[in-house]
Amino acid sequence: MLCPIFKLLRTLLADNLGAIDALLGCGVPMPSPDTYEEFYMMEPNEQRFCLDSWFHCINWFIELVNAFSTHTDTDNIRKVCLRVYQIITLLELVAEKLPKSHDYKPPNCKFHYDCKPKPLGPTKSKKGATKPKGKKVDKQENNETVNGSAPVPKAAPAKPKQGKAHTGKRVMWWDVVTAYKPFFQELDMEVFVLLSKELRAPTETQLNCGSLLFLLMDYVDKVEYMLPNHTKRIMPFKFTSHKDVCFTNIAKVTPLSFAKTAIKNLDVLCVKLEQIFECN
């Protein structure tokens, strides 16, 4: 309930949040990091509790980024970039632990639509009358921890576990974003003002390549939704698929207005991509 209430507060204050900008730097209480070390040994309800905590925290950070990304204060912009980095760090933690929790459904972040998660990793083809045979794939079992006072989990090196070796495809954080997109809050278009910020190393609290990838993935999804290569009528309050419910905010904007904004962002995007190319 926190995210919808915060959205209502933003509306009432007309996004004039200077009096409560301390929220941007506040720590978030999380389960003890010790509980994550043996995640695969936990009871199902304990695994769900940890995963729910991560999803709630990611959505809260997304709302903070939405609210404060347009602020001109240097310190606030630094904190916004840090929150984007922490979102990715939490997504990496979810990507590692989620395959070990079978039949998990994240908490809905949209009260008006009951979402169903898509399977992560390769799926078996169900075409034809006969049931295809497939081999079971062991899930990767790595250990990570999360800081209880401020959720900035640090990735730990993989440790060998007893049993069969891991042969399945590793789940990456962008796989989680794609498969579980309806369970994450939507980024506002104003967030993409961050694309104009200078790229820095991942260890610095500024926009880095990982953060840029996170923003670009969402930006491309919005462009493909609002400017499809075929005629489409957008109905803001009619949801026929996961794809529709992921763009409830952007659907309120006219395609023409969105196209003008997208064209303005082209120069900035080209500069960022050139910087990445030069770094490589």
Give the total of domains: 1
Shape: globular
Mean pLDDT: 74
What is the N-to-C order of secondary-structure elements (H for helix, E for strand)?
A: HHHEEHHHH
**Total DSSP helices:** 7
- End-to-end distance, in Å? 43 Å
Uncertain runs = 122-131, 135-151, 153-167
Structure, briefly:
With 280 residues, the protein is an all-alpha fold. It is built from seven helices and two strands; from the N terminus they run H-H-H-E-E-H-H-H-H. It has a two-stranded antiparallel ribbon.
Protein topology:
Elements: H1 2-12, H2 44-68, H3 74-97, E1 144-145, E2 154-155, H4 173-179, H5 209-226, H6 242-245, H7 255-279
Antiparallel strand pairs: 1-2
Helix pairs in contact: 1-2, 2-3, 3-4, 5-7
Keywords: Isopeptide bond, Nucleus, Signal, Ubl conjugation
Main location: nucleus
GO molecular function: DNA polymerase binding
Give a verbal description of the structure:
One of its GO terms (biological process) is double-strand break repair involved in meiotic recombination. One of its GO terms (cellular component) is condensed chromosome. Residues 120-164 are annotated as: Disordered. Pfam families: FancD2. Residues 150-160 have a biased composition (Low complexity). By secondary structure, this protein is mostly helical. The protein has one domain (2-119, 141-279). The protein contains 7 helices and 2 strands. It has helices spanning 2-12, 44-68, 74-97, 173-179, 209-226, 242-245, 255-279; strands spanning 144-145, 154-155. Strands 1-2 form a two-stranded antiparallel ribbon. A hairpin with an 8-residue loop joins β1 (144-145) and β2. α1 (2-12) packs parallel to α2 (44-68), α2 packs antiparallel against α3 and α5 runs antiparallel to α7. The longest helix is centred in the first third of the chain and has 25 residues, at 44-68. It is globular. It starts with a helix and ends with a helix.
